[in-house]
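Appendix B.2, paired examples.
Example (i):
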Amino acid sequence: MKSIFTSLLFIVTTMCFCQTNAVHKNYIHLFSDSIIYGSHISFDSGFMVEAHLNMDETKYRLEDVKFYNSGNGLKGNVMKETHGKALFAHIILEGKINLFQTTQRSFDSYSYESLSEIFYSKKNELKKSYFNKGMGELKKTTFKNLIAEIEDHPMCTNTIQKYQKVNRISKIVNTVVGGLIVSAIIEITYNPKRQHLQQYIIPSLLTVNIPTFIYRYSIRKKKEKLISELINTYNRN
């Protein structure tokens, strides 16, 4: 009899514990740094109704919400990056640096090894990726923003130097190509003696621009790969 009573007590205690955890799994974290826990969170909007979050019949303005978790992953407000327009990105990577994304695939979970997939899919462009540390505000995932957070990390030095080298090459290529195009346009427009060469100069510029475009595209991909490498290195060490 005592054994049965002990078993029942254990089951009831476990159920209460699970229910408490289920409730506390859902919460809203305001920009005021207040955290409110609840049992159910929904996103509500409609005709003549301002979009808002509703938790247990209490409404919260989107502009007041920094983070919220409705049971399917943490979401962070990137309104600081969208000039005051509330927009929520979904967490896709947790670590010393957390990575968020505003695309549909942000519901997926990624390992460190597959992090680069985020930057190479057309649906997951780098400009739609955001990051933070701890519960800090979300920032765009750019080299400039990242470097401010992790430049003092010794394991990241090599990747930082690689990125800076690629960036210098990119600037040189852009400057040279831009200079050639501007010079050709000025020569054709303001030098009557050269106007007869217009039919040759424009095709030549297009011919030069095709490989340049391909090279600039490869540079952009290289930068994105180095940024993902930077995040991986920082989170692993």
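Example (ii):
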Amino acid sequence: MLNQNPKIQPPYGSISRLRYVLELFSTHNFPQITPTMLRDRGFSGSDAFQTIAALKFLNIIDSEGNKTENVTKLQLKGEERTQAILEIVKNAYQKLFNTVAEPYKLNKDDLYNDFISVYELSGRLAATAVPNFLWLCKE
């Protein structure tokens, strides 16, 4: 399922928090992810909400915080996990991939400009969304 909600912005919060949650999904079985659950795990209020928004954008959780079929993909290991993350990223960032075939190969300035253009982000958000995208691509 592709990210059909144009109001959800690409991940722009802390990469370390996103990494932590993705690792949690690979080892734990949570039926639902909520800001309260993340705050109970040491997230600040803003980190919790940014992480929830990132998980929604990536279609890892739905609008209610329930896990999607993508959670199972995060539990895979090796090459299968890498391919699953690739699929998740390409689906979530479909608008960007439709604009640029291999956006992860762009220099940071061009990628920054594409994030502003494609996702209508402010400069401040684009500056943090680009590193999140590149990190996800490396995964």
